[in-house]
C-alpha cells in the first residue's frame, strides 16, 4: 500500500470516527453535540474552515471569499470522502478534520485555488435533512406543522427556513418548544395558535396570542427583560430564543449537549456587565452590596472588587485565598426602585444613581436583548447574541416564507423601531465565525473598540465638521457606513455620517491620524485573537474585563528572550488544542522548516517561523517574533543570528534596527560576548543624550522598555511598558462624561424600563455625552499588571444631573454640588479617597432626598486627605487600544528631546503638568477651537477644563509632581502580585509614582533613526 493511499484511508477513518464538537464561540443556538468536553471552541471550521457555509450572506465569511459554492457530492451528500487526487494533496495538504460527522462519511470540502499559486480546503456544512424530498423522515414528521408553514431548506427546494444546526439535525420543537404534530392525529393540520407558544397573557393584546401591548412592546417584547417572572414567560422566551440564558439548560446546555456552558456564560463579564454597572457605581461612591462586601474584606483590594452586576450569580468554588486575582464569590443584580411608589423625600441619592447606571448603561449584557430597537443595535440574547447574529438593518435574508423581509421599516428604525415590528436574524442558522461587525452591536460604548479596530473614530460632538464650517482647513473624511447624502435619516448606533470619521489629519503630516489596527488590515477578526474562555467565561466571576482577558501580545509575538512557543501548555492562544488534543483546534504553529514537520500539509507556510492559522478564514499569517527582530549589530548595521531569518512577507531579514533599539536590552557594546542577541537597546550618546541620573549619558545596564528579563516563553516581562503604550498610535480619549435622568421634560412625565427586571419606572435618559473627544493625545500610567500603559478618561470623569418630581409634581434639580442654580451638575468622590472634590465644599442642597454633600459611603472609604483638594473628582480607566500599528510612536512622544525640549507635552502625557494639554502641545486643541455639546459649550484655549459644578476641573491633571500623590482613582486591582511598578496604593492601578516622575524629568532622547 502506498503512503498516499494509506494516508487517504486514514483520513477517511478519521472523518467517520471523529466526535462532533462545536465551533467558533460554541454556545450555539439550540445546538446539541456529542462531545461536550470541547465546549467553547472559538476556532471552528476545523483545520480548513469546516464549519463555514459557502452561502453565508453576512456575519461569516462572504461567499465571494469562499470560492465557488459547493456542488455535487460535496454539497448534497451522502457522497465520497476526501478526494484521492494526489495533486490536491500537494496543493491543499491533508483534508481537514471537521468538528462534526456527516452522514455516510460525507466530506463537504473542496480544494480551491487562491489565485496566487496556492490552494486551500474550503468546507461547508453537512447536508441538511431534506424534508422536501423525504417527508417521511422521522425528523421531519415530528416537525410537520412547523415545516408545513415555514418549509425547510434542502437540496430539492431552496425555499424554506434554514436548518439551524446543519451538522446534526435537531427538531424545531426540540429547541423552540411548541407543538410540531398532533400525536392523536399526526396527519391533522395544526393551526398557528396550536403550534406556537403563546406570548404571556399579562403582556398580550386582548384577543391575541402573539402581539404584545404597546406598553410592553419595548421592554418585554423587544428587550425581553424580566419576562421570566410572568406566567408562561419562560416557555415563551424559549420559543422566541432557545439560546437565552434563562432557559439554556433546556436547550443548548442540556445534558448530552453543552452541559455546564450556560452557567459559565452567566458568570462571564459579558453577562454580568460589571465593568459598566459596578465600576460606575464605585466611581460615584455608592456603597457596595451588603451581601457581597463582607466576603471581600476591607483592604484596598477588597474595596475595588465588584458587588453589582446585571444578574444575580454566584461562584460556589470561590475562595479568597485561592481564587484568581479580581474574582469574586458573586454579584447582585442592579435593579431600580420605583420612586413614584416610594415618594419624594423617601428615596435616596443612592437610589437615583443606581437608576442612572441601570437605565443609561445597561443595554449590553447577555441576559436580555437590550434596547434592540435601532440600526446597528439589533441583537438577540444569551448564546444567540453571537451565534445567531442580526444584520445592521435587522432584516431577514432567510428562506422562511413566513418572515417579512422588509421588517423593520425605515427610516423609523434608524432611531426607534415602529410598534409592533421586530427585527430578525439574518438567517436561521448558527454562526460559528463571528465578525467585527457582529461584535459592534454591543462594543461601541466608551472606547468604541470595534470602530477603532476598523479605523473609524466617532466624532461625537461633530468637532471636525464645525471646525471646517468655522474656516479650519483640517483634512478629514467621513466613513461610508451610512450615507446621509442619500438617506438623511440614516444612523448607525445613533451616529450620523458626520460623526463617523475614517480619515483625519489633525497634525497635518499628510497621514491618517486614526488608522485601522494592523491586525484588521491583515484580515483578522476579533475572534482570531480572543479565546473561548474569554468569550464564554472560565467559570469565575471577575470584577473587571481586563481580569478575564487572557490573550496577550506575548502569546503570538513572544518576548525579548524567547519566541512564542505554541506547543507549551501555558500558551493560551492554543488553549482548545491543549484541552482537546485535536490539531483542528490549533491556532498557532512553530515550524522549524517549511512547509512544516517535514511533510506536506501546510502548503501556505512558506518559511520557518511562527504562523497563525486564523479562526475566521482559516488563512495562514506569518507572525513576527520580538526575539528575532531585535538581533542587529549596530557596528556593522547587519542582522545577526536569528535576525537573519527570512520574512516571507518581504523576502528580507526579520531583524529591524528600530526594534533592536526600542525593544532591546542595553548590555554594553561587546558584540563578541553575544550581548546583541537581546538587541542593542537605547544607547548612551546615540539615542539617549542624558540619562536618568541627570548627570550623564548612562543607560541602566540591562534596561529594556519591555521590562525585566522574561522567565520563559509565553510569559510577560515584569514592569516595563505594555506593547500598546507605544504601538497604539491613537485612542478614544473622552474627557468629561455627562449623564443624568429626567422625570419630566416640563410637559409630561418621562418613563423608561429597568434593564434587569423590565419594570417601567419614572425617569428616562436626559443626558449621556462627552465633552472633549481627543484621539491623539496620550496619557500614561501604571495598569493592573504593574506596567506603564495607556489610560483613558472614559466614563470615570463623571458629572451627574437629575431632574426629579417633588411632592407637588414639579420638576426640580437636585444634584448640584453647591446648590447654585447656574451649576446644576454634581461631581463625585469615590470610595478610595483619591481624586475627590472637597475644595469649596458647602452643605449643598439641604432638601434633596438622601443628599450627601461629600461622601455617600459613610461606613468607611471617604478619606478626606486635603491634598485631593488640588484637583477633584476625576478618574481614569485602563482599556487596551485596538489601534495597534507596526510603527511605534516617536520617542519624544513620551520623553524630553535634546536640551529638555517638549517638557510641557511630556508632563501632560504622564499627568503631572497642572496645565495639562494646551493648544501648543495638542493638535486636537489647536484645530478644535470650541466644543458644542448637548449640555453646554466650551472653548479649548485653557485646554480640557470643565467647570460645570462651579469649580474648575483640569481633566488631564492626574498626579502631583512634588509628591506623586494621585488626583485620580482607578477601579482596577493589581493582578501582578506587586512585581511591576509601584503605585500610591500598591494594590491598585494608578498614575506613575514619584520616582518615575523624577526620571522622566531628566532623560533626554533623540527620535529613532538608526540609519
Structure explained in plain terms:
This protein is α+β, with helices and mostly antiparallel strands. It is 18% helix and 12% strand. Strands 19, 22, 25, 26 and 27 form a five-stranded mixed beta sheet that branches. A hairpin with a 6-residue loop joins strand 12 (609-613) and strand 13 (620-622). It is globular. The N and C termini lie far apart (59 Å). Residues 1-84 and 831-853 have low confidence and may be disordered.
**Residue share in helix:** 10-25%
Low-confidence stretches: 1-84, 831-853
Give me the Rg, rounded. 29 Å
Provide a count of the helices: 30
- Structural class, by secondary structure, is alpha+beta
Q: Give the overall form.
A: globular
Biggest β-sheet description:
5 strands, mixed
- Strand elements, count: 34
Question: What is the CA–CA distance across the termini?
Answer: 59 Å
> How big a fraction of the residues is strand?
5-15%
How much is the average pLDDT? 83
Amino acid at each position: 500500500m502506498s503512503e498516499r493511499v494509506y494516508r487517504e484511508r486514514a483520513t477517511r477513518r478519521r472523518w467517520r470516527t471523529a466526535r462532533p464538537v462545536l465551533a467558533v464561540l460554541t454556545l450555539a443556538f439550540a445546538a446539541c453535540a456529542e462531545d461536550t468536553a470541547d465546549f467553547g471552541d472559538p476556532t471552528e471550521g476545523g483545520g480548513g474552515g469546516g464549519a463555514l457555509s459557502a452561502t453565508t450572506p453576512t456575519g461569516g465569511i462572504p461567499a465571494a471569499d469562499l470560492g465557488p459554492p459547493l456542488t455535487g457530492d460535496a454539497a448534497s451528500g451522502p457522497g465520497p470522502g476526501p478526494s484521492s487526487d494526489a495533486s490536491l494533496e500537494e496543493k491543499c495538504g491533508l483534508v481537514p478534520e471537521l468538528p462534526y460527522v456527516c452522514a455516510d462519511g460525507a466530506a463537504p470540502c473542496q480544494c480551491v485555488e487562491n489565485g496566487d499559486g496556492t490552494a486551500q480546503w474550503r468546507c461547508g456544512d453537512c447536508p441538511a435533512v431534506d424534508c422536501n424530498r423525504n417527508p417521511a423522515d422521522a425528523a421531519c414528521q415530528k416537525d410537520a406543522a412547523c415545516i408545513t408553514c415555514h418549509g425547510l431548506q434542502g437540496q430539492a427546494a431552496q425555499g424554506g427556513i434554514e436548518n439551524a444546526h446543519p451538522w446534526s439535525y435537531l427538531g424545531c420543537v426540540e429547541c423552540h418548544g411548541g407543538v410540531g404534530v398532533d400525536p392523536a392525529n399526526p396527519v391533522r393540520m395544526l393551526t398557528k395558535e396550536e403550534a406556537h407558544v403563546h406570548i404571556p397573557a399579562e403582556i398580550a393584546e386582548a384577543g391575541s396570542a402573539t402581539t404584545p401591548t404597546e406598553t410592553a412592546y419595548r421592554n418585554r417584547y423587544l428587550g425581553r427583560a424580566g419576562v421570566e417572572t410572568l406566567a408562561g414567560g419562560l416557555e415563551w422566551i424559549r420559543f422566541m430564543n432557545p439560546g437565552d440564558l434563562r432557559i439554556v439548560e433546556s436547550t443548548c446546555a442540556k445534558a448530552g449537549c453543552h452541559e455546564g456552558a450556560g452557567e459559565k456564560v452567566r458568570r462571564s463579564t459579558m453577562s454580568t456587565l460589571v465593568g459598566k454597572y459596578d465600576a460606575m457605581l464605585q466611581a460615584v461612591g455608592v456603597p457596595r452590596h451588603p451581601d457581597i462586601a463582607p466576603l471581600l474584606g476591607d483592604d484596598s483590594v477588597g474595596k475595588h472588587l465588584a458587588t453589582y452586576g446585571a444578574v444575580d450569580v454566584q461562584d460556589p468554588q470561590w475562595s479568597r485565598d485561592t481564587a484568581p486575582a479580581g474574582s469574586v464569590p458573586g454579584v447582585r443584580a442592579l435593579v431600580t426602585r420605583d420612586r413614584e411608589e416610594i415618594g419624594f423625600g423617601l428615596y435616596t441619592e443612592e437610589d437615583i444613581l443606581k437608576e442612572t447606571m441601570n437605565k443609561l448603561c445597561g443595554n449590553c449584557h447577555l441576559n436580555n436583548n437590550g434596547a434592540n430597537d435601532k440600526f446597528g443595535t439589533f441583537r438577540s440574547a444569551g448564546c444567540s447574541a453571537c451565534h445567531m447574529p442580526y444584520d445592521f438593518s435587522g432584516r431577514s435574508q432567510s428562506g422562511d416564507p413566513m418572515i417579512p423581509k422588509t421588517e423593520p421599516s425605515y427610516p423609523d428604525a434608524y432611531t426607534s423601531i415602529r410598534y409592533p415590528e421586530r427585527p430578525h436574524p439574518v438567517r436561521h442558522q448558527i454562526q460559528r465565525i463571528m465578525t467585527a461587525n457582529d461584535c459592534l452591536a454591543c462594543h461601541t460604548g466608551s472606547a468604541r473598540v470595534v470602530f477603532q479596530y476598523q479605523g473609524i473614530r466617532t466624532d461625537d460632538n461633530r468637532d471636525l465638521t464645525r471646525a471646517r464650517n468655522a474656516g479650519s482647513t483640517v483634512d478629514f473624511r467621513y466613513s461610508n457606513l451610512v450615507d446621509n447624502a442619500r438617506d438623511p435619516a440614516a444612523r448607525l448606533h445613533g451616529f450620523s455620517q458626520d460623526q463617523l470619521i475614517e480619515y483625519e489629519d489633525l497634525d497635518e503630516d499628510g497621514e491618517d491620524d486614526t488608522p485601522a489596527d494592523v491586525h484588521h488590515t491583515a484580515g483578522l477578526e476579533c475572534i482570531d485573537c480572543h479565546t473561548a474562555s474569554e468569550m464564554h467565561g472560565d467559570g469565575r466571576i471577575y470584577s473587571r474585563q481586563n481580569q478575564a482577558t487572557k490573550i496577550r501580545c506575548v502569546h503570538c509575538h513572544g518576548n525579548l528572550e524567547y519566541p512564542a512557543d505554541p506547543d507549551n501548555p501555558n500558551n493560551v492562544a492554543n488553549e482548545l488544542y491543549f484541552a482537546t488534543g485535536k490539531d483542528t483546534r490549533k491556532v498557532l504553529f512553530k515550524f522549524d522548516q517549511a512547509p512544516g514537520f517535514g511533510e506536506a500539509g501546510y502548503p501556505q507556510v512558506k518559511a520557518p517561523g511562527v504562523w497563525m492559522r486564523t479562526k475566521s478564514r482559516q488563512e495562514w499569517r506569518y507572525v513576527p517574533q520580538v526575539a528575532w527582530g531585535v538581533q542587529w549589530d549596530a557596528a556593522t548595521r547587519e542582522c545577526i543570528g536569528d535576525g537573519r531569518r527570512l520574512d516571507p512577507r518581504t523576502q528580507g531579514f526579520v531583524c529591524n534596527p528600530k526594534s533592536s533599539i526600542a525593544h532591546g536590552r542595553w548590555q554594553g557594546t561587546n558584540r563578541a560576548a553575544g550581548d546583541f542577541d537581546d538587541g542593542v537597546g537605547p544607547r548612551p550618546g546615540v539615542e539617549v543624550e542624558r540619562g536618568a541620573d541627570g548627570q550623564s549619558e548612562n543607560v541602566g545596564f540591562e534596561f529594556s522598555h519591555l521590562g525585566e528579563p522574561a522567565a520563559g516563553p509565553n510569559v510577560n516581562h515584569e514592569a516595563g511598558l505594555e506593547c500598546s503604550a507605544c504601538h497604539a498610535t491613537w485612542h478614544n480619549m473622552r474627557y468629561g462624561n455627562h449623564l443624568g435622568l429626567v422625570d419630566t421634560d416640563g410637559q409630561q412625565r418621562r418613563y423608561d424600563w429597568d434593564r434587569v427586571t423590565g419594570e417601567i419606572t419614572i425617569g428616562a435618559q436626559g443626558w449621556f455625552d462627552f465633552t472633549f473627544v481627543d484621539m491623539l493625545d496620550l496619557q500614561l500610567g501604571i495598569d493592573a499588571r504593574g506596567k506603564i500603559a495607556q489610560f483613558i478618561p472614559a466614563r470615570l470623569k463623571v458629572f451627574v444631573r437629575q431632574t426629579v418630581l417633588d411632592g407637588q409634581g414639579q420638576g426640580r434639580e437636585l444634584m448640584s454640588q453647591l446648590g447654585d442654580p447656574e451649576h446644576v451638575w454634581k461631581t463625585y468622590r469615590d470610595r478610595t479617597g483619591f481624586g475627590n472634590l472637597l475644595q469649596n465644599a458647602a452643605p449643598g442642597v439641604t432638601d434633596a432626598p438622601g443628599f450627601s454633600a461629600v461622601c455617600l459611603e459613610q461606613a468607611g472609604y471617604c478619606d478626606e486627605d486635603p491634598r485631593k483638594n488640588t484637583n477633584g473628582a476625576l478618574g481614569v480607566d485602563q482599556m487596551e487600544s485596538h489601534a495597534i500599528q507596526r510603527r511605534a510612536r516617536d520617542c519624544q512622544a513620551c520623553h524630553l528631546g535634546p536640551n529638555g525640549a517638549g517638557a510641557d507635552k511630556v508632563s501632560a502625557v504622564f499627568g503631572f503638568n497642572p496645565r495639562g494639554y494646551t493648544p501648543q502641545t495638542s493638535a486636537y486643541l489647536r484645530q478644535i477651537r470650541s466644543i458644542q455639546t448637548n449640555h453646554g459649550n466650551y472653548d479649548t484655549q485653557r485646554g480640557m477644563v470643565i467647570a460645570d459644578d462651579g469649580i474648575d476641573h483640569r481633566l488631564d491633571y492626574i498626579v502631583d509632581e512634588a509628591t506623586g500623590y494621585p488626583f485620580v482613582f482607578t477601579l482596577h486591582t493589581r493582578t501582578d502580585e506587586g512585581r511591576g511598578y509601584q503605585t500610591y496604593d500598591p494594590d491598585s492601578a494608578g498614575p506613575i509614582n514619584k520616582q518615575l516622575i523624577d526620571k522622566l524629568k531628566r532623560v533626554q532622547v533623540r527620535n529613532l533613526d538608526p540609519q
